[in-house]
């Protein structure tokens, strides 16, 4: 018998569209047509979770540029926020975009779109008390799977947490320079159907330049740029789709299939974004211009290993000295300077 | 017969490998896919995560930090040399299907294109035995081959509005049963009261790739009755093991 863990509640005061619960994904059911869903930026999701002492794949709130506003009920909560360059505030006091803090009962944490990035993650130390679907909290709104009754988070939702411990972290910046990723070049492995395209079309695909379209969401990012032509038609007999697959339908405009993609599909896939660059693309806002660079499997695996090693070393956090830092000063800092500045002043 | 044909190994990024046995809808190709899928599921190599069979290929999701691509391919090749002809698990499903005009929204349109009467189209659809080639697109959705020649119809040029859950559709020479409301380029010719996916049911998914399937015509009253029972968690399709 385990003692009942203390509980606290995250109450959602306001939520823009597109805030969802996401764990590392609902894996094992692709063969039945069930998409994994999971975070759009897996690296940022893992960073937020690890910074607060959760397993890397634990359930966190994925916040879109629509933002979110939450408070704590029945006790305080230790939380971490990491992802794009979002604008954060606690009871009106601005914070850097990647922080760990103690959200006291009644305190208001606001997360708004900031200077860049499309997604950020709000991780709460502890275990979310929400029923799982097929073993996962990951939300897939198109099929009504997971999350809060299969839907996005809305104002008024109350999310219960079994608290992991009684630690009350002082407000600290998360030292995660790896989240500051340029999006101008996205690495891909060619295939699985690059043989449906002539060499000059593969060259055109890599050169771009591509502009992320406003039509992009958790299912797919549409790219505007040169029209690609197929050498062998654009209908294939359906096969599996990996996250990051770039399919080219009949109109020649590439579509990157993301976390909420369908499990199978029937258009040729010219290339697949490597795992470590999925979050990089996901953070690109509509209007972002990018190119693709083809890498070998070996290079892709090396990049993946580098990322795994980063996270295995643990996430450093650096306490900020709130009383000494004006909001203007904090807003002017980037992550690394914030750490150094806080130490100097402290 | 052994699986002598050498597949192509295609990369879908550094964490998924496509083992491609062909590029057509062909029971012999699908047999190979399902045989390899069964072998891998029985003895999954360390580092593999998930196997996704489709008409003509098997996608293997793997952790490239736990098993490298060359080792995975060598393992798959070794498995293939030991595989015999795949005979399936032999499950045949009889799925109730209502062809009433109230539910078969596109039946008249499709029959017109195929130059059949409504009753001819229904009889033709209900007499065939279908093979489940794959599940995909949405949870529990099954893609069926074995559509009789007179019912082979192209997809629509532009999609129609979303169909209801449980729609039985034809298009592209194939048939599908679609448990989720979705827009589609196929023709809705009937509806099953069965829930091919029900999260709360012990068997969340009923049908898998390699199964056989027949449709049992039912009237609207029977449909409503079965629909109610299915909503309560009962399986209303009939299952027959070999």
Q: Please provide the ordered H/E string of secondary-structure elements of chain A.
A: EEHEEEEEEEEEEHEEEEEEEHEHEHH
Largest sheet of chain B: 8 strands, mixed
Give the SSE order of chain B as H and E letters: EEHEEHEHHEEEEEEEEHE
Structural class of chain B: alpha+beta
Strand content of chain B: 25-35%
Helix share bin of chain A = 10-25%
What's the gyration radius of chain A in Å?
21 Å
- Compute the number of structural domains of chain A: 2
Provide a short characterization of the protein structure:
By secondary structure, chain A is α+β, with helices and mostly antiparallel strands. Chain A has helices at 42-51, 199-207, 275-282, 297-312, 327-331, 335-345; strands at residues 7-15, 20-22, 60-63, 68-73, 77-90, 93-95, 99-103, 108-124, 127-128, 158-162, 172-175, 185-190, 210-212, 220-224, 239-240, 245-247, 255-257, 264-265, 269-273, 289-294, 316-319.
Protein architecture, described:
The complex is a heterodimer of chains A (346) and B (242). Chain A has 346 residues and is an alpha+beta fold. Chain A folds into two domains: 7-179 and 315-345, no CATH class; 185-309, Cyclophilin-like (Cyclophilin). Chain A is built from six helices and 21 strands. Chain A starts with 6 loop residues before the first strand and ends with a helix. By secondary structure, chain B is an alpha+beta fold. Chain B has two domains: 8-81, 2-Layer Sandwich (Gyrase A, domain 2), CATH 3.30.1360.40; 92-240, Beta Barrel (Cyclophilin). Chain B has five helices and 14 strands. Chain B has an eight-stranded mixed sheet with strand order 12-9-10-7-6-13-5-14. A four-stranded antiparallel sheet of chain B has the order 1-2-4-3, covered by helices on one side. In chain B, a hairpin with a 6-residue loop joins strand 6 and strand 7. The radius of gyration of chain B is 19 Å and the shape is globular. The two termini of chain B are 21 Å apart. The model of chain B has no long low-confidence stretch (mean pLDDT 93). The interface between A and B is large, with 42 and 45 residues.
